[in-house]
Every structure is written in structure tokens, then in C-alpha cells.
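**Reference record**
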Amino acid sequence: MAESTGIALAIGGITLANEAIFAPMAGQSVQINWRVIPATIGLALALSALENVAPEFAVGLAWLGLVTALFVRFGNAPTPIENASKVLGFGATQGSTK
């Protein structure tokens, strides 16, 4: 297995878990986007092919994708960081002046 494949699978797993588990825990009702699964497989295959040509670039691109999946909205739910902050009680309350 290529070095970037595990990172690509983590990206898909985080995105799917965010919509299926973390968003409902944070109080949002979202529909799960099942297209994440084939998109993750495609990403893993593409990064694996790219890793044959430029290994360091492919791994770096995979890490960049992982960080992006944590901080940018994909799919139907807020970002995993937003959901984690709401679940842990760090979300800003409405009407707060601070």
C-alpha cells in the first residue's frame, strides 16, 4: 500500500464520521452524503498513482487534504472542528458580547 493511501482513507473516514456521528452529536440533523465513499477510493487510487511519479509531492498533497478536511466544509455538515467545539461546549453562544 502506498504511503498516501492511509492518509486518503483518513480523509474519507473523517468526512463520513463527521456527517454520520459528529454532526448529530452537535445537534444538527444532516443527510449523510454517501458519495464520500467512492470519492475516497478515487482519491486513494489517484494519490497512489501520483506517488509512483512524485512520491514526496503525493504524500504532501495527502497531508494538505487531511488538514483541509478538518477546517473546510464538505458535504452537508459543518466542519469537524466546528462540531467538536460545539460538543465540547466551546461554541460561541448567541447574544454574547465578548
